Amino acid sequence: MDVTRRKIVQSLAAGVAAAVSGPTRAAFPSTIDDPPTNTSTVPQPIEGHLGADDPGPRNVILDRLNPDMLTPPPTDAGNMPNLKFSFSNVPMRLTEGGWARQVTQVDLPIATSIAGVDMRLKPGAIRELHWHPVAEWAYMLVGTAQVTCLDPQGRNFVGNVGVGDLWYFPPGYPHSIQALEEGCEFLLAFDSGNFS
């Protein structure tokens, strides 16, 4: 049997398309801006002859983003832990220089080896020189920043990063991040689920 990645991807795509377009799937609107009172666009926990409508109160936008929570596939035994948690579900820490919000193992118990922070800095704002006992990876989402880092031998690094760029600071290395003209937003990942 000649199995290729292309054939596997084509088969998966066809299966997903059939599952989503099947006649027994809940109806979903083309946008999340449709009013939740329109019963033709509100997804319901109904699959064929199984389930019943949910009159609410409920978070319709969240239901639209997670249709398999309302109508799980028949192969779902219900014992898979949650593998996602939205930054939109955690409070922001507001400062004069911007904001930050984090997701740790407290929010997402499966995340034992990673914690994340979404951070925004205003133009010129700086995340002052600091260090921590865990490694830090980052991905730039918006704008530009200047990063600095010192190593144990006293050498320093200064560089500018922009959208799509990455950086890495090993555990214990002092570093800082300063937003440039237009400000910036970036995702940080730390190699400990409990790091805050």
TrEMBL record:
Region (Disordered) location: 27-58
SUPFAM superfamilies (alphabetical): RmlC-like cupins (SSF51182)
Pfam families found in the cross-reference section: Cupin_1
Keyword list, A-Z: Metal-binding, Signal
Signal peptide range in chain numbering: 1-26
InterPro entries assigned to the protein according to its UniProt record, in alphabetical order: Cupin_1, GPI/OXD, RmlC-like_jellyroll, RmlC_Cupin_sf, TAT_signal
Domain called Cupin type-1: residue spans: 85-196
Protein's UniProt keywords contain Acetylation: no
Protein name: Cupin type-1 domain-containing protein
